[in-house]
Design brief:
2 domains, two-stranded antiparallel ribbon, mainly alpha, 13 helices, Cytochrome p450, single chain, binds protoporphyrin IX containing FE
């Protein structure tokens, strides 16, 4: 059996695309440096648009051309649909109810369908237009207030994050979680932020699985601690809703995503007959983690790119100044919801959430 196993492994290794030679144990880790995307581009020039790198004992295939990416995702999507589950994401309860860590199959399909038909659906997005405008107005106000500080420097990423968080909170719970009056909301925000910070840290146990039992940086332990605290808080919101005691549970209340999850009835084959409160907690929490950091980084990246391209920045500023506030399309057809505000000067500062 051992010989057979070894044979199969060496066969699998032979099927991987070629790549740069690495060191024993650490593989190619030290060839990546502090800007991995730049190192990938440099290595791809030498080793081609599809190459294998070894991050410790973790094999990683890097695709650096749109043609290869198209070929992979169009023609080999299902074969490549598996996911690597990082140590930080491995909870004591397994991955019950998780969409982000679900492997391709009926369980993933059921959760994904629910997302597509109930969360990302246009009618829901349209119904939320007012809430979106309110969250963005609030963000602009926070930014303007912060701009009055002595330093004049603003960590815009933090305000993007708050905006995205409040937006998702409204989609799921119909609540402003970051309302200054909501202590539980602030605590939920704190623990969710910690989870994202820890999950984004490089973890030596991911690269050298022999170390995973020791959790040398304590990342899995700390992540699970914050997840459990966040679950306790979200569990409270869920219980309140179930008991009909939550805020805004009046007859005219819009059906939010929590209602969808509580009302879910499955066939017991592709999905459970009903979701347990643990599963609801997991789904809710994942929506926050999937939707906040991504939105923040994308907006920050766009702003950083503008700062690096002063010509484009000037063109955009001129374009925005040409539009009168009353002419702005508040229906979001062109993506502008900002009302007239005092122009701010952008100064890049180190990123912190
Ligand atoms: C600019 C913002 C965003 C970017 C760049 C982004 C990017 C991505 C990417 C690359 C994936 C695939 C991950 C994988 O397959 O392992 C993904 C999945 C996902 N995203 Fe986003 N996302 C953004 C915003 C959002 C928002 C706002 C939400 C929800 C509120 C969201 C919810 C999800 C969920 C639930 C998944 C898992 C889907 C699945 O497993 O099939 N994302 N996102």
């Amino acid at each position: 059996m051992i010989t057979e196993g070894r044979h199969r492994r060496s066969e699998e290794l032979r099927q991987l695309p070629p790549g740069p030679k690495g060191w024993p144990v650490v593989g190619n880790i030290f060839q990546l440096g502090w800007a991995p995307h730049e190192s990938f581009a440099r290595l791809a020039r030498k080793h081609g648009p599809i190459m294998t790198l070894w991050l410790g004992s973790m094999s990683t295939v890097v695709v650096s051309s749109s043609d290869v990416a198209r070929e992979m995702f169009k023609n080999h999507d299902v074969v490549l649909a598996g996911r690597k589950i990082y140590e930080a994401m491995k909870g004591d309860y397994g991955n019950e109810g998780s969409l982000i860590t679900a492997q391709h199959g009926p369980h993933w399909r059921m959760l994904r369908r629910l997302c597509t038909t109930e969360f990302f659906v246009t009618s829901r997005l349209n119904a939320m237009q007012g809430v979106r405008s309110r969250c963005i107005d609030q963000m602009v106000k926070f930014v303007a207030d912060a701009g009055k500080s002595d330093t004049g420097a603003i960590d815009v990423g933090r305000f993007f994050f708050l905006m995205a968080f409040n937006l998702i909170g409204n989609l799921i719970f119909s609540k402003d979680l970051l309302d200054p009056k909501s202590e539980r909301g602030a605590n939920f925000f704190y623990h969710a932020g910690k989870v994202m910070e820890l999950a984004g840290k490089p973890n030596v146990a991911d690269f050298l699985p022999i170390l995973r039992w020791f959790d040398p940086q304590g990342i899995r332990r700390k992540t699970q601690f914050h997840i459990e605290r966040a679950f306790e808080i979200a569990g409270g919101f869920i219980r309140e809703r179930m008991e009909g005691m939550g805020d805004g549970c009046g007859k005219e209340k819009r059906r939010d995503y929590l209602d969808v999850l509580l009302d879910y009835r499955g066939d017991g084959v592709e999905g459970p007959l009903r979701f347990s409160s643990r599963t609801i907690n997991v789904i809710v929490f994942e929506m926050f983690t999937a939707g906040t950091d991504t939105t923040t980084s994308t907006l920050e990246w766009a702003m950083a790119e503008l700062l690096h391209n002063p010509k484009t920045l000037k063109k955009l500023q001129a374009e925005l100044r040409r539009v009168k506030p009353e002419d702005m399309d508040m229906s979001e057809r062109i993506g502008i919801t900002l009302r007239k505000a005092v122009p701010l000067k952008a100064i890049p500062v180190p990123y912190k959430v």
